[in-house]
Specification:
globular, 34% helix, 10 helices, homotetramer, 6-stranded parallel sheet, 377 residues, 9-stranded mixed sheet, alpha/beta, Rossmann fold
Chain lengths: 377, 377, 377, 377
């Protein structure tokens, strides 16, 4: 292999780290012509023993129990941050100070202030950075963007977005770190998954002008462990929703819930324009629906477009339409983006500046809910 | 026929009157055991000539160009009001004064004040009355209600409702009376179709506690006629949406649009409970989807239930599941309800009291939008 | 009303007669400009008492217990035959001999021989006749036909058709007359419902060239009544299927079942052409899906077209797309066709000649199944 | 890493080889506890130069232009055959003779005779073998199997299966090796993709008893290259279909097409039982629909079950239901199966014996089509 090697230092080995690993592993099979290939150089978990175990299990060359060693390791090119939000700031600033590139999971930091601080430091240091807004990597988001930019649906009038999941729909589901604002931030479902649909809205419609919403903790306390009698108070929202006015005048509504019984992956966007409309449903992630009022009147209707080679970079996965990508393939695409960013300075779909902008919207939505009023961005 | 005959006096012969006629005509074939049968006694249109023409065309015994004659005609039992909202108050009060029963199209009156006045007069006079919230007559609304009442989805946490249509999606579509607040009321799309989804929300979830929303006229002016250069200012909302807190604590969102490109009949409700969920989409009006978390974990999912004989009064239309009802069948059911109301004093699904309650919600939504704040009901 | 009156003599008052009644009743509200209006003149049921009861119940002027009187009654213009197949021949021939027009439910007669005999007699007598292939009256069949005739999908390569229902899916469902070949004919599910999808195939693709199939009685015997210990042998097919070569060279497959657990109304057609494709699913009878390979490559897909005013005669029911027609609306359209046929000599979508052609296909399919070989038509 | 290493020798680097590579690459991230990990030891392509290039591109340690060297290479544990069918026999027999384990793409060999010869040799030699019937690896096939085995749908009455694609739907699409019977076998679409749905039918319903079908070359000749004037005769079927009687008495129909305009990935199965039904559609590969007649009568319906952790091995990919697997994930699962087979002797879902059984069905279907008669297996 004559390709450049990009040495990854991964911090944290939970759910999302596993998705990153999938991306690192599968990427070379999908993008053999990538400007660079990732190398699993160093992994950090809580303590040397666990870290060593993770290295063995996932195929890293080396391990450490101390993230400070990782961010300054001279054989690490990219620091990949897969830890809860409360640790983002310190780690990110240290990595930036060490001149490392950053691959940061969303939402970056505990709130808008932290996200802005990190983004500013990165910009000042000139390092390269990518924020992992997974669902933006779906090739059909690319198609939606292209259609909108081409004018296929005219001027955007309305945006309806949702990211609902059911991972805490069971009232007896135990307290997890995402319920703790000190670790996950004041935005609960809103920060965890609402941020994804906000990212998509910004990407497809544009900047947010003002929001007015509500946020609620539906299950006030949860068992500390499965079946435990002891409970712990949930400190952030189980569900949130808000009205939006976009800077370009479009109206919108965004909702999110982690207690949406029956909706394991309801990441939905419906964009109504003056001449057409676009619809997407995350439970059917390989389909985009397009309506055009330019079709003859007797045969107008939403057409169900399956992801295919015409929707880059789908063609790198398969030459056949509707073969279907999976959730983890988002991360394969994201890792490829990371390689192109680090090795060839190609800008990613979302970086720390986007993360900071999204964090401001999250804060505005929470303020709006707390004070029961519209908040201008 | 030994059944009682209920003599109808119809005022107005536009679109919705045609639907009523369908109901009057088809009802006896569907409900041969109805307590009464409608008789097309008297029709009123603008002027004697047009009225006579309508009588001939639609099979009424007699006609008149003067609605005052109709509401006092001694051979009329029920006054059926199918005229625009600005005429509701005067006609309804006169009919009530004459002791006639009322079949009133929605939304009753120009605003909450008028609706309340009419409802109060009717209650005082003791006449029988039915308000035509068409979509509530879908047998699947009955199933949804039964499931909720039985506890099949637990406690309701969230309601998402929409009634979007595209009848003014074309910016060149000419000005119609529904765009004129003096005729249709200050609520545009909100009053015309938003009222339907509000009616369903009230029926299934319960009373509204507070709302906060926005309402917009997207196309400020429209041609006065197809292709005309002259335009006329549109005086009410093309689209509106609002957040809701229901009296029982459930959260919700309701949206409506008459410019929803690609959505000719998007009357949607999605009700999330603590133990299940219900979904309905008006473009597939013969299906209700139900999710239950009591199903075994490996086979949980929304089941698509087709309307069938188990969902009264579907069985009066067909013994076969999924044979399918159509839009006009709503009115067949509604007319049957009217017959049972007038002849057997069986209470209807929606009457003038409901109309008044819905009108209050419409007013609150508009106030909230105008003043950009939450409004308590 | 200045319109011609067409006086109906109805024989039989079972399920399908109820659908005809719906048609007769609702038609004038939907088609006020029809060349004629139906009059419920005379009804015949088994015995004078039952007939009188039916007349009172359904609003006929007169009744009789003797169909021979009905077919020769001088105030009857159209004889409407809604009795089981074994009675078709005798009644139809008598009605033709009396110079009556015929409205005959499908499949006409017990077999191809009887259907041909009736069709021949009708042709010779010059009476007007319509055969009630209900589902052909869906406006979307009209759209499919238009699209095919226009070349929108190119040359037809493949047809897949099904009409599956579940009305006998329960093995304990009692024996009904449709299980008795002496009454319903040798074709069980095939004759009852398979004939519908054959009718659609003929209409959209063309004449059948050869068939090869199988037909099976899955539940050999059924209780004679609900819960009865005594059973009776089922004498015709519960399910049947066959391969087809159409005269124009297209290949196809047609299947039918009356024991299709979970499929109450699976009347499906999928037509694949060289440049596009069409799909229809009877459980969503207001949608047709169209694929065109002339769309740009990055946005090809089946578009979901809702029935609307562009698809005659839908506009007579509603000015709004996706308002939705119901099962009984097929018969409203069919009755209008009957009126136009009788009063204005406009040819119907299906007449006795079609019935005879379909009966020949049914016979060929059964022969093919019995002799396990291809049969040329 | 203490896991066993299984050294792969891959022959052929076309489309399906790319899918295998994806599987080899991603597997360790998904199944870190696998009994073994694959090592990309040796790759063979047509000529040393191309092979070296493939090795560099895809990360193999070594390369060779001669498959005979690969199959006898002492550092190869598994020979992975990704070449066209005409080369299967010679390579497989040589690999077996050399004592290598086999990972053989479907359909194995040119016909039933070759498939049987290879299967027999493998059995005799005692080597381990897996045949890559990709779609069987979908976790939802596992759920379908479990549901059937549990009796959730009662006794199977009917199976409808299809594998339609559109990769040659364009008549101007050039001739490919799959059109040449000398390379791909006499079964065209039938062998390439029809074999997949046959594999699923066998897995879920059981052995085939008899078949009767037809097979057609719709486009007799194709350009030799894109836009070329010169054409070459297509030597096998573009579409095929057949009726089936399964050994257990169930009836069925199977169809396949490579010219199915609009259907890029229509791999469908619909299984009707006496007490329920199962439906799957490959264009929505993360959903299975289940109907049970044990649900209460007023809420029966097909439930849409999304793949989730309850459906092994989905949980190894994600803890979240409906996160979605993609086409290439089938091969990740398949490679894991291969590792468990080679390192722990766990039997795979499909091996050479299955391949031989399927090849017999393909031959029977072609014979049946050629001789226009039923063929017993």
């Amino acid at each position: 292999m004559t390709q450049k090697q990009v040495r990854i230092g991964l911090i944290g080995v939970g759910f999302v780290a596993r998705c990153h690993l999938y991306g690192y592993r599968a990427m070379p099979a999908v993008f053999p012509d990538s400007a660079a290939l990732p190398v699993l150089e160093l992994v950090c978990d809580a303590g040397d023993a666990l870290a060593a175990q993770a290295a063995a299990r996932y195929g890293f060359r080396r391990s450490t129990g101390d993230w400070r060693k990782l961010v300054t390791d001279r054989d690490v090119d990219v620091v990949d941050i897969c830890v809860p939000s409360n640790l983002h700031r310190e780690i990110a600033l240290a990595a930036i100070a060490a001149g490392k590139h950053l691959y940061a999971e969303k939402p970056v930091g505990l709130d808008a202030r932290e996200a802005a601080e990190i983004a500013k430091a990165a910009a000042k240091a000139g390092i390269r950075h990518l924020t992992g807004y997974t669902y933006l990597r779906n090739p059909l988001v690319g198609l939606a963007k292209k259609l909108i930019d081409e004018g296929a649906i005219g001027r955007i009038v309305h945006f309806r977005g949702a990211h609902n999941e059911d991972y805490l729909a069971d009232p007896q589901a135990p307290f997890i770190w995402r319920c703790d604002p000190a670790i996950a931030g004041k935005a609960g479902a809103l920060g965890d998954i609402g941020s994804h649909i906000i990212a998509i809205a910004r990407h497809l419609v544009g900047e947010f002008g003002a929001v007015c919403g509500m946020a609620r903790t539906v299950y006030a306390a949860r068992p500390t462990a499965p079946g435990a009698a002891q409970t712990r108070a949930v400190g952030n929202d189980d569900e949130a929703q808000f009205l939006v006015i976009f800077a370009n005048g479009a109206a919108g509504h965004i909702e999110t819930s982690r207690i949406a019984t029956g909706s394991p992956m309801d990441i939905t966007y419906e964009i109504t324009g003056t001449e057409g409309a676009i619809q997407f449903d995350g439970e059917r992630m390989n389909e985009l629906r397009l309506y055009s009022n330019r079709d003859p009147a007797d045969r107008r209707g939403f057409r169900r477009i399956y992801a295919g080679p015409e929707h880059p970079p789908y063609g790198s996965f398969s030459p056949g339409t509707a073969h279907g990508l999976g959730f983890n393939d988002h991360k394969v695409i994201e890792v490829h983006e990371l390689m192109q960013l680090v090795a060839a300075d190609k800008p990613p779909l979302t970086d720390l500046a986007d993360a900071a902008a999204i964090a401001r919207i999250l804060d505005a939505a929470l303020t709006s809910a707390a004070e029961q009023r519209w908040v201008t961005l």
